[in-house]
Amino acid sequence: MTAATTTSTAPALFEALPEARLSSFAQWRALTGRIVWTMATKGELIFAIVVPLVFTVGFYLPLRLVMNFQGVHYEQYVMPIIVLQTMSFTMMSNAQRAAFEALTGLSTRLQTMPIGLLVPLSARIAAGLVRSVVALAAALVFGYVIGFRFSAGFTQAVLFCLFSLAVGTALAIGADALGSLTKSPEALSQALTLPTLIFGMLSCGFVPEHSFPAWIRGFVRNQPISQFSFALRDMAADGVTWQVLWVPLVWVVGLTLVFIPLAVWASVRRS
User: Fold this and answer.
1) Digit-coded pLDDT (tens) for 33-57
2) Is 0.70 surpassed by the pTM of this model?
3) What contacts 24+ positions apart, CB below 8 Å, involve 249-258?
């Protein structure tokens, strides 16, 4: 067979093959599945279950007698901050994953391939949402063990879960942006731990506002973690009202509107 014959018959070999069609959804599904599978095999989903258990034991047991003596049903009071702290670990997980992908060059590699620009970012956020769902379910199970109940009915319980996941997703988007920019999982984890502890401890999630010194009560009452805990606590008790819900809702929407452009820019930029 001559070279000319080989050249002329080569295209015929591929005529029966279907034309390749790129699908952003299929790419997103594949990348999301890869991340979730990695979380499952590396034990991260197990860790997502253990974390709320540690928070439940660590937060509830030391203060329950003191708070119950003051007439506070602490299992109901402390549950929102347990959930919020659990969501903060999803934030850190997303930050570390984005930083690791940027550090190892995976993000740059994906940018050179025929993949939608927002597919890697959306896949990381979707995988983080899976982790949040697992952690939230575990937190509610452990909360049920210590006596936490949804007294306001099914609708408010669903709203409790959706709002918790919305907070976790908003924080995960911002953390993803920081991870893509810093490219340092270790340093980023340390940097996020401090503000998480500060906002958590200086909030109305653990103790009522009047337990703090008068000079700091304004910050404690109005900072986002306290506002989130107010709304979640009402959702689990008598049902949240718009008067209570609108402030934390503004916080969630505002943070999301700020973090999304930053995360998109950090994800698609060429390093």
Assistant:
1) 999 999 999 999 999 999 999 999 9
2) yes
3) 251/224, 251/227, 252/163, 252/166, 252/167, 252/170, 255/170, 255/171, 255/174, 255/224, 256/169, 256/170, 256/173, 258/174
